[in-house]
Amino acid sequence: MDIATVKQRQQVAWASGDYAAVGARFPITAELLCEAVDLRAGERVLDVACGSGNAALAAARRFCQVTGIDYVPALLDRARLRATAEGLESTFQEADAEDLPFPDGCFDAVLSTCGAMFAPDQERTAGELLRVCRPGGRIGMVNWTPDSYVGALFRAIGRRMPAPPGVRPPVLWGSEGRLRELFGPDVTITAPRRAFHWRFRSAEHQADFFADCYGPANRALQALGADDATSLRAEMVETAREFDVSDDETLVLRMDYLEVVVRRKAR
After folding, report:
1. List of residues 6+ apart from 233 with CB closer than 8 A
2. I need a labelling partner for 50 at 20 to 30 A (CA). Which of 30, 89, 226, 264 fits?
3. Which residues, in sequence order, are CB contacts of 35 under 8 Å at separation 6+?
């Protein structure tokens, strides 16, 4: 299967459900990333695979000149609505993380919160993030770790719907060793491990929410036969319980990620 076909399937998956409802529930990661990157007012900022705009809007709150790109038009529409509602200046356009339509070095900071990591060609994506970031600029990413809840969820899906040959797991972006492979020697990387708590009424509630709204889970459950879909949903419930840190009947889901800051060397 070629990359173009993989991307088409990914676009269908991310357009399934209601990812805007998912992203709207963890803007905290984008706000913290903007602080880690140390954005300054007036800087030119690109949010890659921006979804419904968490990082773009966080940068706009800091009076940056912001552009957000994604390949799912419905998510871009939601990002524009959010920006208008909050009175934030930002621009959103349809584009591919593996082929950014911008000149070399035209952004002071390039951000991506749980977005660019899902592009199928990891090397090409990292190359594009570097290319559009100016010398001395910063790349900031929020990437789920391999041992996170999201990593476990994608392994559960992958056992029933294996990825095409040659497509590497997205959660590799949550490994500092893989980041160094992707971005090469001419950068400095800091990647502390972080976590936030996502609160649900129960593990069953969390599984229902992801089944309805989180594109990859929604698409998988629709595509699988009845027995496999029932098995996947049961595993989603059990996985949520494994990452539960609550001390009552509710679910407090620990979401582990790397808060990545890549600094390009100044020439």
Report:
1. 207, 211, 221
2. 264
3. none
Q: How confident is the model at residue 221 (pLDDT cuts 50, 70, 90)?
A: very high
Dist CA 250 CA 238 (whole Å):
14
Using CB atoms within 10 Å of the CB of residue 248, give its burial: 0 to 12 exposed, 13 to 18 middle, 19+ buried: exposed
**Phi first, then psi: what are they for 234, rounded to 5°?**
-60, -40
The burial of 258, by beta-carbon neighbours within 10 Å (0-12 exposed, 13-18 middle, 19 or more buried), is given as buried
**CB-based contact 78:52 (threshold 8 Å):** yes
CATH code of 3-145+164-197+256-264, in short, is: 3.40.50.150
Domain regions of the chain by residue span: 3-145+164-197+256-264
1 has pLDDT over 70:
no
- Say what percent of the chain tops pLDDT 90: 91
pTM of the model: 0.95
